Amino acid sequence: MNIKKLLLGSVASTLFATSLFGANLTAVKTTIAEESFQMKVLVSILKKMGHNVKISNDVNYDIAYQTIANHASDDEVYFLAGSWDPLHNSKIEAVGNDKLTKFDNKFIANCAQGYLIDKKTAQKYNIKYYNDLKNPKIAKIFDLDGNGKADLTGCNAGWGCEKVIEHQLDAYGLRDTVQHNQGEYSAIIADTIANYKTGKSILFYTWTPYWVSGKLVPGKDVVFLQVTHSANPNTSSTKLSNGSDYGFNVNDQKIVASANVKNHKDISKLFSLVKINVNDVSGQNMLMANGQKKESDVDKHVAMWMKQNSAQIDKWINEAKEVK
Q1: Which of 40, 149, 224, 312 has its CA 20 to 30 A from that of 280?
Q2: Do the Cβ atoms of 111 and 278 come closer than 8 Å?
Q3: Structural class in CATH, domain 22-109+252-321
């Protein structure tokens, strides 16, 4: 038996099978239910291209990046659909930039985040800046538990935004007047909305795309607070081109994959092309907030988006397949 011919035949068979049946991928699913939509859209497009895609169990961001990095040399490609840039850059650096590929493509662009208060209170007390909460009298307006500190509905541990909030409590001298309330965000923001409906003053952190801005509409029900100067651990400046500064960068969600994605030029090309409008994601998140939150509901939302954007999807797929 000619071992060399046997090995060459085995390699050729493997390459043929990969070409014929598609590559194997695993989409890493985060613990944020509202991020399932964009992940499943990407999964659906990859399957339409002819690839085999599995979805992982729910994991937090740190485990997600480590999992992807651990498979950098495998045959199977692991990917995260929504990596927040620049919020998660330090998480990527922690596991090794050489083990991950972050695509420059803005998969979901213009994801804003920041601190908000109800508009009625903002106007009554002329509150414009987060730093205004350093004044104990202002902070007490948002005190819900009677300890004299403003109650801030904050960010889950492990998301990345919690580190910015904690950093800014020190940077703006707010430790003595603001209490960063953490827990399951969907639960504590529901309490915040309930407090708003009963006429209480509220202070909270949120982001887009997310359903909260559909329930508490910026400019109508609530207002964003600015900061007097930038103090963000992820960047030297958070100031916008118009001079406004909300303390957080406007993020873009990007696709991050294990380094072995470079072996699949069509997948790499797709990841550099595909986009979802931030308003589409917010709209889908609102459907979830209104009760359509089962897995089957999200699948229906994905199918609807795929149908509505079929021409663009076909264009992305054709362009990806043309790459040699």
Answers
A1: 224
A2: yes
A3: alpha beta
E strand or H helix at 307, and its extent? helix 295-308
What is the CATH topology of the domain spanning 113-224? D-Maltodextrin-Binding Protein; domain 2 (3.40.190)
**Could you give the 3-state DSSP secondary structure of residue 206?**
strand
Per-residue pLDDT of the chain (324 residues; tens, 9 = 90+): 454 444 444 444 444 444 457 999 999 999 999 999 999 999 999 999 999 999 999 999 999 999 999 999 999 999 999 999 999 999 999 999 999 999 999 999 999 999 999 999 999 999 999 999 999 999 999 999 999 999 999 999 999 999 999 999 999 999 999 999 999 999 999 999 999 999 999 999 999 999 999 999 999 999 999 999 999 999 999 999 999 999 999 999 999 999 999 999 999 999 999 999 999 999 999 999 999 999 999 999 999 999 999 999 999 999 999 997
Classify 269 as helix, strand or coil: helix
Nearest to 42 by CA among 322, 317, 232, 319: 317
Answer whether 22-109+252-321 and 113-224 agree in fold. Answer: yes
According to DSSP, the β-strands at 150-153 and 178-181 are: parallel
| Closest to 217 in 3D by CA, of 122, 109, 116, 110 | 116
Structure tokens at 242: 């118009």
pTM greater than the 0.85 cutoff: yes
Residue 110 backbone dihedrals phi, psi, to 5 degrees: 60, 55
Q: Indicate the pairing of strand 251-258 with strand 100-102.
A: antiparallel
Q: Nearest CA to 86 among 163, 180, 168?
A: 163
Question: Is 237 in contact with 129 (CB distance < 8 Å)?
Answer: no
Q: Domain-by-domain residue ranges, the chain?
A: 22-109+252-321, 113-224
